[in-house]
């Protein structure tokens, strides 16, 4: 997906120029570097699930990856570069966009923006799976923690590891590349709508 996204943005054509004039992208290719290196997926070497407990500052003893990411976010915000949108992509067997529901009026506005993002995904990529049910509320997930602690709209997009519903195809690498390419257009449409 990242390969498709980066190559599309660097293609040098008019569409790429239009995207790059509208937004910039920061990419962390993998959150759980050491855990994955050792053959794991969900938990880091400290036994920590890096997509939990985002409602509080990360303990650098158990989640040094998250502590480093928080330091970077603090630095970006201090430098006047608060990210507008943060997405955590990882896979499961559902393919859903997880939209958390922070409480209060700001939470409502956040959810409305995320609904717009979902619409842009549907219009510009092969995404059809939809989002989590309206009762979903997980203060410790990255989606909600980024919003409540850093003022950044955020969501988790699961990649269905078995099946791509919008293409009626198995989850092949080439389709994720295409998704990354199309995501550049979904971003452009989303930022134009803000
Ligand atoms: Zn997940």
What does this structure look like?
There is one protein chain. 45% of the residues lie in helices and 11% in strands. By secondary structure, the chain is an alpha+beta fold. It has a domain at 83-168. Helix 1 packs across helix 7, helix 2 packs across helix 7 (173-193) and helix 5 packs across helix 7 (173-193). The model has no long low-confidence stretch (mean pLDDT 94). The structure holds zinc ion. Residues 90, 92, 156, 158 line the site of zinc ion.
Question: How many separate helices?
Answer: 7
Share in β-strands: 5-15%
- The largest beta-sheet arranges its strands as 1-3-2
How many DSSP E strands? 5
State mean pLDDT (0 to 100 scale).
94
Which ions, cofactors or small ligands are bound in this entry? zinc ion
Any idea what the radius of gyration is? Answer: 17 Å
Q: What percentage of residues falls in helices of 4 or more residues?
A: 40-55%
Main sheet attributes: strand count, strand direction, barrel closure: 3 strands, mixed
Instruction: Give the class from helix and strand content and strand pairing.
Output: alpha+beta
Describe the global form.
globular
The arrangement of helices and strands along the chain is HHHHEEHHEEEH
Distance between the termini: 24 Å
Unreliable sequence segments: none
Descriptive keywords:
three-stranded mixed β-sheet; alpha+beta; single chain; binds zinc ion; 194 residues
């Amino acid at each position: 997906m990242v390969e498709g996204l980066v190559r599309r943005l660097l293609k040098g054509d008019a569409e790429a120029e239009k995207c790059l004039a509208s937004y910039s992208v920061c990419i962390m290719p993998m959150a759980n570097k050491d855990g994955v290196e050792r053959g794991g997926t969900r938990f880091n070497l400290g036994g920590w699930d890096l997509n939990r407990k985002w409602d509080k500052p990360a303990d650098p003893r158990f989640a040094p990856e998250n502590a480093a990411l928080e330091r970077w976010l603090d630095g970006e915000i201090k430098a006047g570069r608060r990210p507008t949108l943060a997405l955590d992509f990882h896979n499961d067997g559902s393919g859903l966009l997880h939209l958390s529901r922070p409480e209060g009026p700001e939470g409502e506005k956040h959810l409305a923006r995320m609904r717009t993002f979902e619409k842009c995904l549907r219009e510009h990529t092969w995404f059809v799976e939809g989002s989590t049910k309206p009762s979903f509320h997980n203060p410790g997930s990255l989606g909600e923690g980024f919003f409540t602690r850093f003022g950044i709209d955020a969501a988790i997009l699961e990649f269905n590891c078995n099946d791509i519903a919008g293409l009626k195809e198995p989850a092949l690498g080439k389709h994720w590349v295409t998704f990354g390419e199309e995501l550049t257009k979904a971003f452009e449409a989303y930022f134009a709508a803000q």
